[in-house]
Amino acid sequence: MARLGNPSSLHAFGREVRKDLEGARESIAVAVDCHPSEIIFTASGTEADNTAVKGFYWKGQGVGRNVVVVSAIEHHAILDSAQWLKVHEGAEVIEIGVDRHGVVLLGELEDLISRRADEIAVISIMSSNNETGVIQPIEKVVELARPASIPVHSDAVQSFGKIPLSFNSLGLTAMSLSAHKMGGPIGVGALVLRKGLDVPALLHGGGQERDIRSGTFNAPAILAFAAAVSDSSLDFSDRNTRIQSLRDKLEDGILECVPDSYVNGSEVERLPGIVNITIPGTESDTLQLLLDNEGIACSTGSACSAGVQRPSHVLLAMGHTDVTARSSIRFSLGATTTESDVHEAPRVLTSVVARARMANLR
Ligand SMILES: Cc1ncc(COP(=O)(O)O)c(C=O)c1O
Predict the structure, then answer these.
(1) pLDDT tens-digit readout, 139-160
(2) Helices (H), strands (E): how many in the chain?
(3) 78-116, pLDDT tens digit by residue?
């Protein structure tokens, strides 16, 4: 932060920062197995998602493709970008459903591609879900799209740093990353975009990042992003094994203390650090407030900007009713979670659930 050179400037101060910035680009590229020139730095995962969905739509529109395909469980950065294209640009948006475990229905996608391949501008399906942690079959999605040359984008914001992620092996056209989900700072992300393939930009100006993302580089944040990446790749598997074992203890503890609760997505492959649990007879916002009071942070599916809780679109897509979706909360575990945290939380939850159920009866 002390070195103020603009990496796009030709003077020595700028060149010096540029060198470090390109080093950061290279180390992030190694971590996700892509070419350094395929990394386009953005200000967030949200921006990377918007750039991909809108960019591929505009590119496809030029050749008569106006269908945007997303899964029903995408983050709002994808869902709302697609809806914006529908309202403002005449896109047709098709949502692919998921099964009761939260895994995208490949049969539905295959059927759609067999009927309408020539109309599809982009398929965007996340690598893993932020509410349940459920990992999606991205290789298979790419396999289905490849014969029809349909670009496939994947929001890998939650997967990066938690499960192995290879842009090249997955065969993706584009992939979104965000630094703050893997130990880096808030306010920096990246769109990994296949070499030689450009999309129309959202931001115009200085022409940085292949003219796809204009704006002066946020060099300190980008360097911090790379530092977090190298830190996370150092002890990647050890840390994940530890987090997964803590998660299992937390889940076992909760299921023992609240026997009629159940974990969403527990029967399929999941990220190590997410527990999404339904506790019948409670309201998730009551649970959240009571837990917060006890110093335990949890999340509910989603909250609109007015602060009114809505049932999670992810859980609804998995077959939950409004009532059961509203009785679900999510705990996230990370590098700083301890044995005593996962031991203590179920104990606290027991009394919180009793109070929340009482409140629900009133
Ligand atoms: C799956 C997923 N995509 C996108 C985002 C948005 O990333 P950012 O917070 O960097 O805008 C998030 C953040 O919660 C996420 O979980």
Answers:
(1) 999 999 999 999 999 999 999 9
(2) 12, 12
(3) 999 999 999 999 999 999 999 999 999 999 999 999 999
Q: What is the CATH number of the domain that holds 202?
A: 3.40.640.10
**234 class by beta-carbon count within 10 Å (0-12 exposed, 13-18 middle, 19+ buried):** exposed
Specify whether the CB–CB gap between 203 and 44 falls below 8 A.
no
User: CA-to-CA distance for 323 and 264, rounded, in angstroms?
Assistant: 15
- Whether 279 contacts 353, CB under 8 Å: yes
From 75, 162, 271, 314, mutation site for ligand 1 pocket: most ligand atoms within 8 A of C-beta: 75
The pLDDT, as a whole number, for residue 305 is: 47
**Would you say 47 and 35 are in contact if contact means Cβ atoms under 8 Å apart?**
no
Shared domain check, 194 and 70? yes
Does the pTM surpass 0.70? The reply is yes
* Terminal-to-terminal C-alpha distance of the chain: 54
Q: How far is the CA of 127 from the centre of ligand 1 (A)?
A: 12
Residue at 333 is within a domain:
yes
Question: By residue range, what is the domain housing residue 332?
Answer: 236-361
The CA 82 to ligand 1 mean position distance, Å, reads 16
Residue 7 located in a structural domain? no
Which residues does a 6 A CB cutoff place in the pocket of ligand 1? 44-46, 49, 75, 77, 126, 130, 155, 157-158, 178, 189
243 and 218 in one domain?
no
